[in-house]
């Protein structure tokens, strides 16, 4: 059984809904899943998981949340070489620049992107929830 961490930050509940669907998708494929906030995850924890889904909405000028999520990401990205990961988040404006920049950082760190990064506009609808489940299944 694979161990999957879903590490997310959510300000409005949209990315939390996505995280729950990602977790459900991984669990449906038999993975043991742990949902964590950014303050509960660090570089040392990366080795405890076979795969990690990182979720954060677009904030400000299309960037990661700066107070909790960005510091956690800066800490863990150096430990992601060879690790199977996925990126997801919700947005309300823009064209997805934040997730493309995030993908570039993950690839530069040597992470193995298990699936295409997933952006959902605002609250995930049935299609968005299904995409989140697929993302989780890809990590399991």
Helix and strand arrangement:
Layout: E1 3-8, H1 14-28, E2 32-36, H2 43-46, E3 51-55, H3 69-76, E4 84-91, H4 97-108, E5 112-113, E6 118-121, H5 126-139
Parallel strand pairs: 1-2, 1-3, 3-4, 4-5, 4-6
Helix pairs in contact: 1-5
The CATH H-level homologous superfamily = Flavodoxin domain
Report the C-alpha radius of gyration, rounded: 13 Å
Q: Mean pLDDT, as a whole number?
A: 96
Q: For the record, give the distance between the C-alpha atoms at the N and C termini, rounded to a whole number.
A: 8 Å
The total strand number stands at: 6
Which class do the helix and strand fractions yield? alpha/beta
The major pleated sheet works out as:
6 strands, parallel
As for the CATH topology, it is Rossmann fold
Portion of residues in beta strands equals 15-25%
List the uncertain runs: none
Descriptive account of the structure:
With 140 residues, the chain is α/β, with parallel strands linked by helices. The protein has one domain: 3-Layer(aba) Sandwich (Rossmann fold), CATH 3.40.50. It has five helices and six strands. The chain has helices spanning 14-28, 43-46, 69-76, 97-108, 126-139, and strands at residues 3-8, 32-36, 51-55, 84-91, 112-113, 118-121. Strands 1, 2, 3, 4, 5 and 6 form a six-stranded parallel β-sheet that branches. Strand 3 (51-55), helix 3 and strand 4 form a beta-alpha-beta unit. Helix 1 (14-28) packs across helix 5. It is globular. The N and C termini lie close together (8 Å). The mean pLDDT is 96.
